[in-house]
Amino acid sequence: MNRALTVLLVEDDAAVQLGCVQALQLADIPVRAFESAEAVLPHISPGLAGVIVTDMRLPGADGLSVICEARDIDPDLPVIMITGHGDVNLAVQAMRSGAYDFIPKPFSPEQLVEVVQRALEKRRLTLEVANLRRALTLSEGLEGKLVGHSPAIARVRQLVTEVADSPVDVLIRGETGTGKEVVARALHDHSRRRNAPYVALNCGGLPDSLLDSELFGHEPGAFTGAQKRRIGRIEHANGGTLFLDELESMPMGVQVKLLRVLQERCIERLGSNQSIPVDVRVVAATKDDLLARAQQGSFRSDLVYRLNVVNIELPPLRERREDIPMLLEHFMLLAASRYDRPEPRLPQAQLRQLMARDWPGNVRELRNVADALVLGVGPQWVSPHGPAPEASGNDAQPTLTETVEQFERSLIADALQRHAGNVGQTAKRCASPRPPWSTRSGNTGWARGRRLRKPKGPNAPAWPPAPGSPSRSRTRSSGPAADRRRWRRGPRRRRAPDGAFRAPAWGIAGRPPPACAAGAPWPSPRGLRRAEGQVPV
């Protein structure tokens, strides 16, 4: 626990110093010994990983001077005072000055080790809290700029945290609108250069003839129209950060001069032979694969390798759709505050449409849509009061519920076809309760109810009947379909007035139906009896 923390011991008595050093070393506590206050003061710095143990009476400056100097450098640095019997008043004064504790002489090694261990534990907790606060501040700042909770954007935030305070150059790659300049600004704001200039330049926004002068500056008379000296962007960013956007648009001649700046950290203005040293960190951004362009001969490979020390890949918005609700709420909140408008609330249906969109403009397009929604002039398909958008092209993607329902309908229709419309057997075969199958079978073209048997015979109609035809409905009790069902089931016996059962007058079980023309409807029972002369016409 105390292995990484060091004790700075200030004691002019060689015997006491040796005894203290040996006692602390036996307790596995690193210690460095000094003989005067002047010798130890250069080793005290803010955030010192250790504590100070000093004698009250020293040659030159005394222990109180050590306490005062240490408190000025780091108010939380523990200082332990060693005092003699006659120095009680000085010990009280030291405690009032901010000393952590005091040890009266003579003292035992165990007493020294106990007090030092308590001070080291306090120092360790103080440093840990400071580090956590620093990390929390940095994390909150990044989460406010790089909004989202997806693993992809979390990796970007982690990488920015790790390299922000380093002096290395950074290459950011991502599609248009993914937030390359936001990342570059975050790298600058969370580095030691945060108080120095941040200079941005779009390499594709200037003609080739002006980009050289804009970057490196020029002297009077360097070219036609150069009336006075001009400081270039690189020199203006001295001590800070230079952001070069659309690096792939930089001409080959300017690439050579930029490579020299990255290697030698000096520039020469146009029309001058004087080298000017610069301390600048270059953050470049591109939407293309620079190595592929280097293989094609349109970009210098040595410049790619020189810039590609740290490479940050920004994912497109379509690869982190789970961040869309958080981003949309963030942008609408900012827009509502900027335009002094109420923040609109999108229904879930509209939010699902936004999440299903591919967003070719990425985060920038989403931010523009959020601004338009707050102003009430957004596109109709994302308006909170308008109809749901019509799915077309890549946006025509069914929801999970629609996909499941479509699969269920297909499964039920296939199972009913195999079991000839028998809902009970279909549900048993698919190991599903019957009520859901009976309810959903209506969406497949099969009617709920009794199983349909295929009619037999030379005059049987076509089978199976078309979906939705009357022959599939169980509610029809008359007509050709009902006659065929009655004929296949056989006649029902009816009770006569005398109590005896007898077959119906129009036929008996197993009697074939009368001949009829192919495709003609089957006659009704009354028609059959009339044809046989049993019913008067």
Mean pLDDT: 78
Proportion of beta-strand residues: 5-15%
* Main sheet characteristics: 5 strands, parallel
Q: Write the CATH architecture name of the largest domain.
A: 3-Layer(aba) Sandwich
- CATH H-tier superfamily of the largest domain: P-loop containing nucleotide triphosphate hydrolases
CATH overall fold name of the largest domain: Rossmann fold
- The order of strands across the largest sheet is 2-1-3-4-5
Describe what you observe in this structure.
- This protein has helices at residues 14-26, 37-40, 63-73, 88-97, 109-145, 151-163, 180-189, 208-216, 233-236, 252-264, 290-296, 301-307, 324-339, 348-356, 362-375, 400-418, 423-429, 434-440, 480-489, 525-531, and strands spanning 6-10, 31-34, 50-55, 79-83, 101-104, 170-173, 198-202, 241-245, 266-267, 276-277, 281-286, 310-313, 494-495, 501-502.
- The chain has 537 residues and is α/β, with parallel strands linked by helices.
- Strand 4 (79-83), helix 4 (88-97) and strand 5 form a beta-alpha-beta unit.
